[in-house]
Write a structure and sequence with these properties.
There is one protein chain. By secondary structure, the protein is an alpha+beta fold. It has two domains: about 5-40, no CATH class; about 40-175, Nucleoside Triphosphate Pyrophosphohydrolase. The chain is about 20% helix and about 45% strand. It contains three helices and twelve strands, in the order E-E-E-E-E-E-E-H-E-E-E-E-E-H-H. The strands form four sheets. Strands 7-4-10-9 form a four-stranded mixed beta sheet. It has a three-stranded antiparallel beta sheet with strand order 1-2-3, with no helix packed on it. The termini are far apart.
């Protein structure tokens, strides 16, 4: 059953997101007003080293007031590609320059509310170049074994939907 967006108008906008109100026609012909978020794409980087460890950030998220391990991530600037944004975010947030990047997975973290797409790139290792420029993004950065990922997710240590999805794909792909 397909819902039809018959049009929408902006009710709020800033550099991060746009809130629109859509006139939606349901399959039975009824209409409803539906708020939606239009957002810029996000790029993430998952660097994995020769020991099958992934570089993660330990950070606090003030909105839900939770701590957790995450992948370096950020909004893609208009002047850069998804891959460039993933590499930039890795360097800015960790101080590590990623190796060769390949697309890993694209997720829609809240597709009932938002058109956001989060593009995760796999980095073949990384080279430490110094302290992170965006040191305030995380309390610490650590290489963590992919073998620990399922138990960390189950324990609530990895909560971010984009990180959970990407790390489970990596775990299943790289570990026997």
């Amino acid at each position: 059953m397909r819902w039809k967006n018959l049009g929408e108008h902006t009710v709020y906008e800033n550099k991060w997101l746009t809130v629109n109100l859509a006139d939606v026609e349901l399959p039975d012909g009824r209409h409803l007003d539906h708020f939606l978020l239009r957002q810029r794409p996000v790029a993430l980087c998952a660097a994995v080293n020769d020991q099958n460890e992934v570089l993660l950030l330990w950070r606090h998220r003030f909105i839900p007031d939770t701590w957790g391990w995450e992948l370096p991530a950020g909004v893609v600037d208009a002047s850069e590609t998804l891959e460039e944004a993933a590499a930039r975010e890795m360097l800015e947030e960790t101080g590590w320059r990623p190796g060769r990047l390949t697309p890993l997975i694209t997720v829609e973290p809240s597709n009932g509310l938002s058109d956001a797409q989060h593009h995760v790139y796999l980095a073949d290792g990384a080279e430490y170049v110094g302290e992170p420029e965006d040191y305030f993004e995380s309390e610490k950065r650590e290489w963590i074994s992919l073998s620990r990922i399922p138990e960390m997710i189950a324990a609530g240590e990895i909560r971010s939907a984009n990180a959970v999805a990407a790390l489970l794909v990596l775990h299943n792909r790289l570990l026997p």
